[in-house]
Design goal:
Blueprint lengths: L2 H52 L26 E3 L5 E7 L4 H17 L3 E7 L8 H30 L12 H7 L4 H9 L4 H14 L6 E5 L5 E5 L4 H12 L1
Helix pairs in contact: 3-5, 4-5
Length: 252
């Protein structure tokens, strides 16, 4: 082989080696970048996921009712109450309209109302989790409906939201809140004005702060209070029997 050909193949071989090295460097960069992004996302999403799931008991390992870590705010008769306002047992639920576990738990509260009738009353309190994009406005909407249509309209609203939302943050479109208000018997124009002005934004946040003081850090969190003020707390989408155990003990 001539010296010219040998030189040509040497250069070609060198170029191929150089391209391989460059390719490995580029691949390493993208692999490293992807790994860093994954680590960052895992690190920053973990707390939110933990909060969302902290309120969900493991199947077959339901925790018993516990004493709250703080004092729950007293219930007033102008709150959103379902049932007999003078009932012996009060159930206060801190909830989020976009929480999948609240959606799962809502039929439990309905069953309890059917089972115990006038012996219990259910109080709804707002605790919209910050990573559920529509939850804050849906909470405000519930208060606007309660103002314009009373507790019955609010509970009709709550039932329908939990029936229709796909949950997890944006399961019920905010553009559908106006038509839903009309559906539950509230003037849609008055409702929209109330919602758009953010009239109840601070009230929702204040109620969350009250919940925090009582020991709420996830949804749903429920407090069962007897007529003497003794309070027990149940965390998560607990089954109906967990509540019946506590309620029956109070009523016996």
């Amino acid at each position: 082989m001539s010296e010219q050909k040998k030189s040509f193949f040497s250069v070609l071989q060198l170029n191929q080696q150089t391209m391989v090295v460059i390719g490995l460097v580029i691949a390493s960069f993208f692999i490293g970048s992807t790994y860093t992004k994954i680590q960052y996302l895992e690190k920053n999403s973990a707390p939110a996921q933990a909060v969302a799931q902290a309120a969900v008991p493991q199947q077959g390992n339901q925790p018993a009712a516990q004493v709250p870590s703080g004092k729950i705010k007293d219930v007033s008769n102008d709150e959103r109450i379902r049932g007999n306002k003078n009932a012996k047992v009060t159930i206060v639920e801190y909830s989020d309209f976009e929480c999948p576990f609240c959606q799962r738990f809502h039929p439990v509260t309905q069953e309890l109302m059917k089972t115990y009738g006038d012996k219990i009353r259910l109080v709804y309190r707002d605790y919209p989790l910050p990573f559920h994009a529509n939850a804050q406005k849906e909470a405000e909407a519930g208060r606007c409906i309660a103002e314009l249509g009373g507790s019955d309209a609010f509970w009709n609203y709550a039932d329908k939201i939990f029936e229709r939302t796909a949950s997890n943050g944006t399961g019920f479109a905010l553009t559908d809140l106006g038509p839903l208000a009309k559906e539950v018997g509230v003037n849609q124009q008055s409702f929209q004005q109330c919602l758009d002005t953010g009239k109840y934004a601070k009230a929702v946040k204040d109620e969350m702060a009250d919940g925090n003081l009582a020991g709420v850090n996830g949804t749903p969190t429920t407090f069962i209070i007897d007529d003497k003020g003794k309070t027990q707390m149940l965390v998560g989408a607990q089954p109906v029997d967990a509540f019946k155990t506590v309620i029956d003990q109070i009523l016996k």
